[in-house]
UniProtKB/TrEMBL annotation:
Keyword entries, A-Z: Aminopeptidase, Hydrolase, Protease
Natural source organism: Coemansia linderi
EC number(s) reported in the record: 3.4.11.26
UniProt protein name: Aminopeptidase
Amino acid sequence: MHYVQNSSPAKSGDLVLVDAGAEYAAYASDITRTFPVNGRFTQPQRDLYSALLSVHEQMVRLCCVESGYSLNEVHRRSAKLLATELKQIGLDVSDRDIDEQLFPHHIGHYLGMDVHDTVDISRSQQLKRNMVVTIEPGVYVPYDNKFPKAFQGIGIRIEDDIVVGQTESDIENLTARAPRSVEEIEACVGSVSWGS
């Protein structure tokens, strides 16, 4: 899930996942985007990305007091929804596959003065107005023949910083201006000259 050597050249057909944090006025941020090196998602990459984006968007909408959810409850919902989305694109997955291989991290964490802020506050606490959390579903398909070959080796995560609202209409996505849809990412990456 974390490639830290940074020694392999990126090739056409590969995806690059960037998980970045920044600070402003002593507050932290955390954002992840995944993009195709050559500017175009392959069809399996596009299908997997679109499935994950659907999960992401639906989980962001739960980040309000009115939902009555905690981060743990949002995570449980995201895992179930991811399983449904993956089945729709041809991956026959179990709950165990989701938890142990395909989505082995939590949907999010608190954000504030530190990237992983307030570690003493349980993720089982109900979300409260103006809390800031990340929503970061991911899917990482291993090279394992129980998964369709076309999806093997693909890893995608989409992460945004969310201010919890009282209602769904009050939710604020602090990182909403960063390209997120397939079309936005392809337009952005396709406009870059990568050299020879």
